[in-house]
Amino acid sequence: MKKLLAAMFAAASCASVAQAQQERLSADTSAPILTLEQAVAAAGGAAPSADAANAGIKAAQANRTVAGLRPNPVAQAQVENVAGTGPYSGLRSAETTMGVALPIELGGKRSARVAVANAQLSRAELEAAVAAADVRLQVTSLYVEAISAERRLATARDQLRIADDALRAARVRVQAGRASPLEEQRADVARINAAARLERAARLAEVARLSLARRLGRPIDSGLDVALLDRLPAATYRPTVLPSAFGTLTLAAADADLAVADAGIRLARANRVPDLNVGPALRRLEATKDTAAVFTVSIPIPLFNNGKAAVAQASAERSRVEASRRMTALDVEQAIAEAQAEAANAETTARAAVGPALAAAQEAARIARIGYREGKFGQLDLLDAERTLADTRVAAIDALANYQNARARLERLTAPAPQGRNQ
């Protein structure tokens, strides 16, 4: 009788496992896979932050065009010796002057404006790179959560299948008079709890997939690269390296702010030099009906505003930006060090969870099933082993997801600045 029960239990388990594997393989081969890179590319095109960054680049390019324009000439007209007394009454002695004033910028104002605009354009381009890196981190987090939810859902389905098998085995034992009806009740409770866990896991998997689809801006009609979760680096010795913020995207943005401040000081100094206004004109003398040429030159007198305050303001702003840049470098290096430790710890936890811990839990569950079928172990031992296996599987999934997220955060912090930026 024991051999018959064992054969029936093993056949049911093997059939359900084979059916699940067959369904998984057929789904994997028939449905296309949306990879992480494809998801990042799709989200980048639909991200509002990317649209804002591109609009900022266009605005900076237009600002550079405006900065390179010369001042417009000014048309002037003047009438003298009118509406007076004596010979100057009426328009008999009027003198009409018409001409054009051409502003001449001195001190390198135009080149200084262009330098500021170029620095702002470089900053806008870096802002676009920062937005792209942030989108990649956000999409990676959502993608990892989606594939983790699918893994948890598969684990919940497997646990429900095991609970169904255990319930059938308990019924057979009870009907054969080899076990108390309490065992069947316990197995039924375990199956009900497994069904509830499956329902919760299915709902969470659907929410995670919808969250990713919302971020991509379109529904996801294909499968996800669930194998991404298992990708761990080679277990080789990696010496601890002192983190450096040099060359990172975040520090490059701070350097761009410093370049804008430096260009602002140059522009403030250039604005201290007064500009000239020169231009030819023609004067009409009504009294003699003669015409004469006039040449005007004007220059403002920096009496009340000589530009020192503007230079001091730009210098103070530059000092503030430089201090902020130093603080950013320290913060980035600290964040990189913490992210490196977090990723290394997550990798260690993931290796242990998917390696010895999971193997031990699977072996314990296998032994408990065999022993329960043969009457060597009680039902409580079997339920405890199955519960430990389920918890270990979920813990392994969480550990793998934590590692992938930690690696994504580290890559965001160490993302290099784009090359060939506008200077």
From TrEMBL:
One of its GO terms (molecular function) is efflux transmembrane transporter activity. It holds the Pfam family OEP. Keywords: Signal. The keyword Aminoacyl-tRNA synthetase does not apply. Residues 1-20 form the signal peptide. This is Cobalt-zinc-cadmium efflux system outer membrane protein. InterPro entries: MdtP/NodT-like, OMP_efflux. Belongs to the outer membrane factor (OMF) (TC 1.B.17) family. Transmembrane segments: none annotated.
